[in-house]
Amino acid sequence: MTQQREKKVAGLLLFPNMTQLDLTGPLEVLGRLPSWRVEIVAPTLAPVRTDKGLVIQPDACFKTASIYELFVVPGGPGTDDAILDPEIVDFVRDRSNAAAYIFGICTGSLLLGAAGLLRGRRSGGHWQARDLLSQFGAIPCDDRLTIDGNIYTSGGVTAGIDMALRVAAEVASEEVAQQIQLQIEYDPEPPFKAGTPFVAPPEIVKRALAATAERRAIRVAAVETAAKRLETLLD
Amino acid sequence: MTQQREKKVAGLLLFPNMTQLDLTGPLEVLGRLPSWRVEIVAPTLAPVRTDKGLVIQPDACFKTASIYELFVVPGGPGTDDAILDPEIVDFVRDRSNAAAYIFGICTGSLLLGAAGLLRGRRSGGHWQARDLLSQFGAIPCDDRLTIDGNIYTSGGVTAGIDMALRVAAEVASEEVAQQIQLQIEYDPEPPFKAGTPFVAPPEIVKRALAATAERRAIRVAAVETAAKRLETLLD
């Protein structure tokens, strides 16, 4: 048996128009876990363009994907299409059911919701999409990190780094997680107090909401459709 | 004239075996700047494998690269080869000389040093490589963010996010930077006090140093060679 085979696998879902840091943040932490390997998995093996233009090459496609001990589902604008894509939703359900740890980052929790994984569960998500989780039967949480059973959901984008370090402490040890935190020199100095709608200046929150009003309307419609599909599936 | 042409360009250097979060962290911030576009530039147009396995497709190669208003030079294990690669070092010097803002993230500052850009300048870098900056005539700094003239250098990996937000406030406005910080929900909750060698438990620092002793020896030799080359160039 090769060493590769003995390693546990963390799978990270890649899909078009997603927010790359939702994936690359946790990847930087999980990629440093001893005795683990990471696998970037996409619907096909074609390179995938993320929302700000970064093009990532997947390691595996849905057909060749490993079974994951830990499965990371990121979010971003592409989530609105992903929750309506049965192939992606089915894959998320399938790999989540087989995983010991399930990770929803940012609006990735909407994908977990669409797959029926959050019914009756407390769940976090990007502050602009959190309320929509209730449509999938989840109990939305405002915390940066929310843990319910084996489902770990986080706030937007950068929260995935905090969550990955927290999970690293669980799957390996606090010492390993601390060593990774030191390697990536994670002693943050955010220049402003603006990282959540609760601490940001009200004017900034207002602008952020105005700038995304159109996208929000598309998302609300997509979630409604995805929620109806889930109900049909459960009937 | 197209809108694309009017946009300012932030160039981000991609090279083999680099640490992906050094690039993807700043990219997530800079990619959200209004009136800017980002360009991932590598020696050739071939996909590039980063140190933990993520494969990124460049947007441009050295021959087709734009001139950058802001140029981001990341680091990682691959830095040791990059500082000995004349093609990369020359490109870094050339694009930095044309840029209004130069960014060295993590050990990326070693690359700026090898290109002769840090002589007499205060400069930061990853805590395990900072001291080596003096070989290129720089004055090493322990701060997470160091600014000297138009050269912005940061500590390891995650420090690039803080630096990019700081620069966003300069090239756009504080309001824009705050809005980006809110979009990426950057209100960090690191699980441990372990993000610098000054705050981490001594045992963790000791382990981190032991784990990288071999790599450190390779780096020391590479920096020595690169520093000699730079001296020859300056004679």
TrEMBL record, chains A, B:
Q: Which GO terms describe its molecular function?
A: cyclohexyl-isocyanide hydratase activity
Question: What transmembrane ranges does the database entry give?
Answer: 98-118
- Keyword vocabulary terms for this entry: Lyase, Membrane, Transmembrane, Transmembrane helix
A Pfam family (short name) is DJ-1_PfpI
Q: Boundaries of each DJ-1/PfpI domain copy? A: 12-168
Presence of the UniProt keyword Membrane in the record: yes
Q: Give a GO biological-process term.
A: regulation of DNA-templated transcription
EC number in record: 4.2.1.103
Q: What class of enzyme is it?
A: lyase
Report the protein name in the record.
Isonitrile hydratase
Origin species, per record, is Paraburkholderia fynbosensis
Q: What is the lineage of its organism?
A: Bacteria, Pseudomonadati, Pseudomonadota, Betaproteobacteria, Burkholderiales
**Annotated gene:** inhA_1
